[in-house]
Amino acid sequence: MTKTKWAVDYAHSTIDFTVKHMMISKVKGSFQNFEAEIEADPQDLTDAKVSFIVDARSIHTKNDDRDNHLRSADFLDVEQYPNITFVSKSVTKAGDNDYNVTGDLTIHGVTKEETFKVTFEGISKNPMSGAETAGFSAEGTVKRSNYGLTWNAALETGGVLVGDEIKFTVELEASKAE
């Protein structure tokens, strides 16, 4: 296979996150709206180019009050920083179908280099569209404090309300672009 552009199937793709809450549990959420560009040979992702633009306003945790707080200046400040972006810089093979994708992640106006673990899940012909469809899974953990997201509240037990580490998980289906 050769390097080609892939069109993301947004109905079958997600960007989710998990963060520690009150030091005793986890809150899960997702970003409902995003765009991704992928140029890759799925049999060898080492020369892949990947970019994401995530609409920070689309954050969803199943709680309107919390979602509005996350959109506020205490956290994402979506009025000033409406997008979260990722642009790949390098891809290295880490196993049979596993890769490390390193790139520039920008959150809250701060750009840092981050590495995400990506697994190529395979290719199958979509029986509905007839298109050759590839699947990818990715995960990575970032420290929100590195991006200026430092709001928190102290707990009586000595911990904090919101954990510093955010685990992102991405599931993508994409078909060859026409």
From TrEMBL:
Lipid/polyisoprenoid-binding YceI-like domain location: 5-175
InterPro entries attached to this UniProt entry: Lipid/polyisoprenoid-bd_YceI, TTHA0802/YceI-like_sf
Cross-referenced SUPFAM superfamilies: YceI-like (SSF101874)
PANTHER family the UniProt entry points to: PROTEIN YCEI
Family label: Belongs to the UPF0312 family.
Protein name: YceI family protein
Organism expressing this protein natively: Heyndrickxia faecalis
